[in-house]
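Entry:
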Amino acid sequence: MISRILSTPLPMPAGKLPAGMPRRVHPDVLASVLPGPGRDRLAAGEVLAITTGQQPGLFTGPLYTIYKALSAVALAQRIERERGVPVVPVFWVAGDDHDFAEANHAAVLGRDGELVKIVLRERPHEAPQLPLFRELLGLEIRAALAALDAALPDSECKPEVKHWLETHYRPEANLADAGAEALNQLLGGRGLAVFRAYDRSAKRAAAPWILKALDVTLPDGLTPVMVEGELGRDRLVKDGGRDRNGGPLYVTRRSSEGFNRYGLEKIAAETPERLSPNVLLRPVIEAALFPTLAYVGGPGEMEYLPEAAPLFASLGVAPQAHVPRWSGVIIEARVDKVLTKHGLTPVHFAGPPGALETQIAKGELPPALAESLKALRADVEARFARISGEVQQLDPTLERTVQSARNAALAGTNEIEKKLIASLKRTQGTLVSQLTRARAALMPDGKPQERVLTVASFLARYGGSLLDQIDAEVARWAQGL
């Protein structure tokens, strides 16, 4: 069973939500939203929106993807109650992102609580940087699903989780669609509108702002517009020249392909999915397509989103507020027992592997022995300090020799303590194993749980009620903003 959900608030303030103006959502935008209650509400008339988003990942990616979505749902519900107008939570699936290395893997806790990493496949270094909506899962997804099945413990909840993922993660599906559809099935019933931002209809709706953004040059010297070229998704930069009609010329940063304004407008009209916003232009496009009050994001996004302010002004789009998402840790009962027994919190596991085990083993040294070692070190320090002073008067050139002898003596006492602690750790094998498994659950790979483990790891053990527990914590977070 899940013992508790521990909220770990992100240490950054939330922006003040604007008044907002409810409006209808364009049909091309609606066509890119997956079916569900959220889409129905978007289509029903004038609304406001709370948005969030993330690039798709294998088996829906890390837990924080789910936390972002539930944060948007909870905040939308709160604002709707307060303002008395429909407020729809929208999840922007960034399927035109091209970072395959961030999306090709998932991590779960294995049968014995160990960390298990599952990788779909690697993209060759020389391969084009294709957007994720062009990355078919292929036959490799069967091996990934089999690895997931082998890793997760058997339970009454596991078959439902397997069916959920197998339904969407199919060889003929692409990584973006699989992630969007899986998220829609998991959270669509809670009112989340899952928006496929990479869909042709969505890109057609976004095209006017993307084309307008070609006239903007960011501080890095590039435009905020990306185009699919010979090497995949690539940033455009003005090359300073003019075509024969006097229009500006552009070139891709990596492949050096040339485009004029007419050519890019033709792409926007015929194959708009080839054009996409960079990370700073994306929130502008989002606010243009949806009547957005706030974007709910993680710490990295909260740092760079303010840099998009000049783009909002250039494109004539009203900016949304930035709200840090809910953050938390799922603490299983088996882990909570270890924490309680030893007076620990998840923060204690933030250090390097083995550090906590050593600290606890050191605390198990007999008090008299620990005090004797401490006294021995103090005595060594004091006696060598006296010797050093006398040597300085007799022969200052011997000072380095004295210091070397001091360091060797201290190292000897430290080595005694180190070997005693190692002996204790060997006799405390059960405790060391418990701490190792607790670390895998709380700080896998030395990173926060929410940034590594996928929700499937916990759904297979505890079922859908887990989402209800998280939802309750997120609702309290939203109410306290």
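The first strand starts at residue 2 and ends at 7.
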